[in-house]
Design goal:
about 280 residues; 7-stranded parallel β-sheet; 9 helices
């Protein structure tokens, strides 16, 4: 396997959802390895959101880490802005070597979820990765590029009030295996990194304020796993990888190697039974 310390010098990686959380941790790690990183999200220094973090702050952190950071404000629910984002990256860097579809939104609600929130969930979590894949394809084909789609255990099992989010992640995993088969002819590898243990991103912490966050993995741990995937040969493609399972198999992300994956075969039925009050 390829060493994680392999340099990304001269390479350009697009990271969506880069203003905070796993996206920011990944962008900074790539900067440490010398990459040019296009940091993509809505929040900017001049247009902040409730949670901390902006693309401008992340781009500066990439620069401080030794990479070349580019802040690219983008509303991923709007196809025209996704197209403009790719054009901005190519205009600035002249190339794209990898795309990490990490951005996601979560709204509480199951079958009763507000339709506008459902549509926004699907637009950002599923449609945006499809469009970004399509638009980046010709540039990635020039570089034997890589795509990593960041998924969740919610895509495999029912978690109360996260039905729409889970649906979007299930679709993202199907996009992964389908696009891997389609893009193999272009020499592009496409894989999925499924977060199946608690990671202390700002959004997840906010959504679970009463949990014991001291046991949660730092976002840098997820970044380690995604970097590992980006460094594999293009023959490594079409994989739906569990974060915990990959840690145990590959000897990386040591902080979560002793965890139990929430993607156990019984997880879905257990969740249904829990919702019914049986367990």
């Amino acid at each position: 396997m390829v060493s994680q310390e392999q340099s990304f010098a001269g390479q350009v990686v697009i990271v969506t959802g880069a203003s905070r959380g796993v996206g920011r941790g990944l962008a900074v790690r790539l900067g440490e390895l010398g990459a040019g990183v296009a940091c993509v999200a809505r929040a900017t220094d001049s247009a902040r959101f409730k949670l901390p973090g902006t693309v401008d702050e992340t781009a500066r952190a990439v620069e401080e880490a030794g990479g070349d950071g580019l802040a690219v404000p983008c509303d991923l629910s709007r196809p025209d802005q996704i197209e403009a984002m790719v054009e901005t990256v190519v205009s600035h860097f002249g190339r794209i070597d990898a795309l990490v579809n990490n951005a996601a939104v979560t709204f509480v609600g199951d079958v009763d979820i507000d339709l506008k929130r459902y549509e926004l969930t699907m637009a950002i979590n599923t449609t945006a990765p499809l469009l970004a894949t399509r638009l980046c394809r010709p540039y990635l084909a020039e570089r034997n590029g890589r795509i990593v789609n960041v998924s969740s255990a919610a895509g495999l099992a029912y978690f109360p009030s996260l039905m729409a989010y889970g649906m979007s992640k299930t679709a993202l995993e199907h996009l992964t295996v389908s696009s891997a088969a389609i893009l193999a002819q272009d020499g592009i590898a496409v894989n999925c990194f499924r977060i199946d243990t608690a990671v202390a991103s700002e959004g997840f912490v906010m959504n679970a304020p009463d949990a014991d966050h001291s046991t949660w993995a730092d976002t840098s741990v997820s970044a380690e796993g995604i970097v590992w995937m980006l460094q594999q040969p293009t023959s490594y493609t079409g994989r739906l990888e569990s974060m915990v399972g990959m840690a145990q198999r590959e000897g990386i992300m040591a902080e979560v190697a002793d965890k139990t994956s929430s993607n156990a075969p019984s997880a879905s039925q257990w969740s249904i039974d829990r919702a019914r009050g049986i367990v």
